[in-house]
Each structure stands twice: as C-alpha cells, then as structure tokens.
Design brief:
The protein folds into 3 domains: about 80 residues, Arc Repressor Mutant, subunit A (Orthogonal Bundle), CATH 1.10.10.10; about 140 residues, Oxidized Rhodanese, domain 1 (3-Layer(aba) Sandwich), CATH 3.40.250.10; about 120 residues, Oxidized Rhodanese, domain 1. The chain has 14 helices and 14 strands. By secondary structure, the protein is an alpha/beta fold.
C-alpha cells in the first residue's frame, strides 16, 4: 500500500499521471514505449503525465540497461529514500497474488527457480527451472553461455524477450542474481528478484511443490550484448590505480589470501590475494540475513568506504556469482549508473601470470 504522502500527491495530479503511476507500481521498470503500450495514452499525454510525476517526486528516470539511449521509469517509493529507488524486488505476498498467472500458459510472465546440481528440489508452484551449472555454464570454459544457447534455453521454458521474469533460488541469492545479471547482459528488459528467495517464501507460510511448471516452447530473441554491465580483464587492468572502485565482496580471509575464518579459497587458482587497490566489503554486510538490507544501511556501509553513485565501480568475487548479487544491489536497487560485474573474478585473475596481486 502506498504511504499517505504518496496518496496525497497523487490526489492532486491528473488521471493520466495516476494511471501511469499504477502501471509502474504493477510492472516495475518500463520504457516510454512500454508505458505507451500499457497505458494506451498518446506519447504527448504520457510525456505530460511523467513530467507531473517527476515534479511530484514520485517517479525517476534512468538509462535502460538494454539500450543506454532509451529511458526507463520507476517509482520513488518514499520521500525519505529509506527504500530502494528501483523496483527490482518483489516479496512473497506479491508473488502469491500473481501465482495463478504464473501457473497459466501465459508467456507474459514466468516464475523462475534457479537451482544447482545439489538443490533440494522444492519450488514455488508454477515455477520453471534453470540449473545454473548444467544449463548456464559452458562445460569447457566455465563462462557465460553463448547467445544461441541462451535463446534456446529460455524459449524452452516458455519465455520470450518480453516476458516478465521473477527469479529466485533456495540459497543466499547468488544463483538468482547471477541469472539476473546474465539476462541484463543479454538485454532482457523486465525481471525482478524474490527478496529472501525460497526460504522467505516458505517462512511466509506459502506452499511448495516438487513438480515444476512446464510450458510450450516459444521463440526467444536476445537483444544484447550490453557490455556496460560486464567487466573484462582489460577493464580491470585499466582500473588499477585509477578513480574506478574495485570492490571485492569476498570474505576478508579470501581477500587476504588466508583461509583463517572458515571460508574456502579457490582451489582452482594457484595465486591467492586480491587485485591491487581493491576495497573489501564482504557481501553479507549488504544483507539482513538472507534478505536485502535497507537502503540506508547499505549506503552507510558503502559511504564508509567512499563508494558512491558518482564513481565507476567494478565488482568481483571468486567466480562472479556473489559479485552479481552485489551488482544487483548497486546497479538495480541503489541506481548507481556505472557498475560492472567482473564475472571472471578471482578464478580468472588468480590464474594469470602477468597481473599484480596484493595480500595486505
């Protein structure tokens, strides 16, 4: 439910602005073209409505991930900015309200469980399943799937490029966030994460099943690649010693190259440590249990390390999954404009012989 101040602001705005607000409230982030399609307003009327909402502090704009030349719009949830500025999260109550649509053969919306080879197998009813290991990792290079393979995979799960996806996993969110980031790289426009994942769903009293959803295959056409969300080794090399923030979200012992606190160092890399100049903020400091911490709490942690939205940021971890989750926090929730995930992360960097490494 909207806060009282939001209701007061909306009451003074024209019907077109109220319509746009409600459409954004339901759908999350939308481009101007998508808003025209959803509201059936003329471009001129839509432009006026958005202007009214922006002037009232109810809506904000930002570049689209899939095309930086386009603009997307999202709701500003409250005047104190205690919540996140982008609508990339949903809660169990919202998913339950939409559950019937996820269980139908309607490619406009899909609930996606992102599992692994050792996952328990329980899912939210209506979920299609992606296995992050067998479906999404190149078996030879342990890298991203190529475009054709990804298109075939998503199409086989009944998803098109216009499908609204809600992603979740049964762990700490790494797998779901990795797929979210991967799909942003390939240009998927409309996706969200279930805050707290399957654990929060079950704790909220909602049911699970061991029978995943199955839907007819459709055609999926990716619009990427969008390299502004992905960092490569050369990007990291150029960033060393520059104003770009290199953010290491591994545990402190991994950062130091010393497994002294129960964490596991990467056995696949001959060298341990961190990229020179990298700032270490363990990922769990951005969370409250298995749920996202409040915006103010996250910004306090980042501000203490002089990390703000005005700086370019490259995030890394061990294999690119924890850093994908940090990327979601920084890019999708806080709205920082220049955030890249170094998906090669320490698995790649620690295997190279011609790059610098620090352990202090």
């Amino acid at each position: 439910m909207a806060e009282d101040w939001i209701e007061d602001e909306l009451s003074d705005l024209p019907p077109s602005a109220n319509l746009v607000y409600k459409v954004l409230e339901y759908n999350g982030r939308l481009s101007q073209k998508q808003l025209v399609d959803e509201t059936r307003l003329s471009s001129r009327t839509l432009h006026y409505a958005i202007g009214q909402l922006e002037n009232a502090g109810l809506v904000e704009s930002h570049p689209a991930h899939y095309d930086a030349r386009q603009t997307c719009y999202t709701l500003v949830r409250d005047s104190g900015c205690s919540t996140y500025s982008r609508d990339a999260l949903v809660d169990p109550d919202w998913v339950d309200e939409q559950r019937s649509s996820f269980q139908q053969d309607d490619p406009s919306a899909r609930l996606v469980y992102v599992g692994s080879d050792d996952a328990a197998g329980a899912v939210i009813p209506g979920s299609v399943v992606l296995n992050v290991e067998s479906d999404l990792l190149d078996p030879n290079r342990q890298r991203l799937p190529d475009r054709t393979d990804l298109e075939e995979l998503l199409g086989s799960r009944g998803a098109t490029a216009d499908t609204s996806l809600v992603l979740y996993d049964d762990g700490e969110g790494y797998h779901a966030a990795y797929v979210y980031w991967l799909l942003a790289y390939y240009g998927h426009r409309n996706q969200r994460l279930l805050d707290g994942g399957l654990e929060h769903w079950v704790a909220s009293g909602y049911p699970t099943t061991h029978v995943p959803g199955s839907f007819p295959s459709v055609e999926y056409t990716a619009s990427g690649l969008f390299n502004h969300v992905r960092a490569y080794r050369d990007d990291v090399v150029r960033a060393i010693g520059q104003d770009t923030v290199l953010l290491d979200v591994r545990q402190a012992s991994e950062y130091r190259g010393q497994a002294d606190d129960g964490s596991e160092l990467s056995a696949s890399t001959p060298i341990q440590g961190h990229i020179p100049g990298a700032i270490n903020i363990p990922l769990d400091r951005l969370f409250d249990g298995n749920r996202f911490a409040s915006r103010s709490a996250v910004e306090d942690v980042l501000a203490a390390a002089d990390i703000t939205g005005g700086r370019k940021i490259i995030v890394y971890c061990g294999v690119g999954a924890r850093s994908a989750l940090a990327w979601v926090v920084l890019s999708e929730l806080l709205g920082y404009p220049e955030v890249m995930n170094y998906d090669g992360s320490w698995t790649e960097w620690g295997s190279l012989v011609d790059v610098p490494v620090e352990t202090e």
